[in-house]
Design brief:
The chain has about 425 residues and is of the alpha/beta class. It has a single domain, classed as 3-Layer(aba) Sandwich (Rossmann fold). Helices cover about 45% and strands about 5% of the residues. It has helices at about 1-10, 40-65, 70-90, 110-120, 125, 160-175, 200-205, 205-210, 240-250, 265-270, 275-280, 285-290, 295-300, 305-310, 315-320, 330-340, 380-385, 395-400, 410-420; strands spanning about 100, 190-195, 215-225, 225, 230, 250-255, 350-355. The strands form 2 sheets. Strands 1-2-3-7-6 form a 5-stranded parallel beta sheet, with helices on both faces. The chain has a two-stranded antiparallel ribbon with strand order 4-5.
């Protein structure tokens, strides 16, 4: 292929091969391997953490409207975070220095909500979200100066996390090479947003990371297609653009775009009709499709091409509505994280496609207003509860009660076991 490309250049042909792969998962279903966790329990825990993060932000804004906070960012990234916490992020021990994690700043409420389940934070502390006066509050974004026993690195404002993650991974190699510290096996993880990658600092260190062969570094970019004030690339495809950027810089790229529910459709699609539809659908359309139901998606996406229409003919509107994006699928994410650790010689970026405000329904899921959403009405809260099968009464919804299962429940035992593993 390279020789053919060079020959084309020599013949004056200016059109070269596209700098990105097809709009599908890098890892096929056949190469995923078995899932090592309990999916049912992990999904329940993720639902509980989603609720507690939402309730914490809403409580703060009910008390004082100007406090702010973000609901939709963590809602989109919850499965990404839980994949890391349950299976990949390793804590420091006496014999091991531990991994280093740079957390997407707007998703901090989810990390606090998880720490509440673990017993590391109290309900009183969650009640003081964004209210640090008095020493019992939780800071808006990851900040080790304000919470030295909780956060490793500051990641707000946008762009600080990616460039610092690169230089932290490089510094670990420096320490190892000079016998100053044992850093073998330690990994630097960074979970960032797709809009954040437009910050100059976010991409400034990419080529250095590749030149230095920093295979101890993995970026996970939460591609929910939205930024603070609108779509990241409304008339384009940010995932394809980011793939081109990282490939050009010398990184290994793993795309996680479609959940397991899509696998039978890919298997039945002999002439790549789905890939053609994906390629011609821009992010603004994906956001509209993501905010609508199965009937709308059938008519606006599948029925636009006879071949894709035929693929969906045997599916109900409910089944079409249940087709997830890859960043909400634990199996797909685990395979991608595993591939990142297995890849040697280069850093890896995982591009995980998600929905902003996942689970918020008509109150914000995949809607342009999602990032600014600070409050949900009682009907939206009830819909959220029902979608994630949470054991909350209407009174508990109205009071925004935090939920913590009994200490001897399967969920809490699993949470402790995975943390100790």
């Amino acid at each position: 292929m390279r020789r053919l490309e060079e020959a084309a250049r020599g013949a004056g042909v200016s059109a070269l091969a596209q700098p990105f792969s097809a709009y599908r998962n890098t890892i096929p279903a056949s190469a995923q391997g078995p899932y090592p966790g309990d999916l049912a329990i992990e999904e329940r825990l993720t639902s509980i953490i989603r609720w507690n993060a939402l309730a914490m932000v809403m409580r703060a804004n009910r008390a004082t409207g100007e406090l702010g906070g973000h609901i939709a960012s963590y809602a989109s990234a919850a499965e990404i975070f839980e994949t890391g916490f349950n299976h990949f992020f390793r804590a420091r021990t006496e014999a091991f220095g531990g991994d280093l994690v740079f957390f997407q700043p707007h998703s901090a409420p989810g990390v606090y909500a998880r720490a509440f389940l673990e017993g590391r934070l109290t309900e009183a502390q969650l009640g003081n979200y964004r209210q640090e006066v008095g020493g019992q509050g939780l800071c808006s974004y990851p900040h080790p100066w304000l919470m030295p026993d909780f956060w490793q690195f500051p990641t707000g404002s946008m762009g600080l996390g990616p460039i610092n993650a690169v230089y932290q991974a490089r510094f670990m190699r420096y320490l190892q090479a000079r016998g100053l510290a044992e850093t073998t096996g330690r990994h630097v993880w960074g979970v960032f947003g797709d809009g954040e990658m437009d910050e100059p600092e976010s991409i400034a260190g990419l080529s250095l990371a590749a030149r230095e062969g920093l295979d101890n570094l993995t970026f996970v970019v939460n591609c929910n297609l939205q930024r603070l004030d609108g779509p990241v690339r409304g008339n384009g495809q940010i995932i394809q653009e980011l793939e081109s950027l990282f490939v050009g810089a010398g990184w290994n790229v793993v795309k996680v775009l479609w959940g397991s529910e899509w696998d039978p459709l890919f298997a039945a699609d002999r002439d790549h009709a789905l890939l053609r539809r994906f390629a011609e659908t821009v992010d603004g359309e994906y956001q509209t499709l993501g905010s609508k139901d199965g009937d709308y998606n059938r008519h606006r996406f599948f029925d636009a091409d006879p071949a894709t229409k035929a693929l969906a003919e045997g599916m109900s509107d409910v089944e079409i509505n249940a087709l997830k994006r890859g960043g909400h699928d634990f199996r797909k994410l685990h395979a991608a994280f595993s591939a990142a650790l297995a890849h040697k010689g280069r850093p890896t970026v995982i591009l995980a496609k998600t929905k902003k405000g996942y689970g918020m329904g008509g109150a914000g899921e995949s809607r342009m207003t999602a990032h600014q959403a600070k409050k949900l009405d009682i009907d939206a809260l009830a819909a959220f509860r029902d979608r994630f099968d949470l054991p909350l009464s209407r009174e508990e919804l109205e009071s925004l009660s935090l939920y913590r299962p009994a200490e001897d429940s399967p969920e809490m035992r699993y949470l402790r076991d995975r943390r100790a593993a």
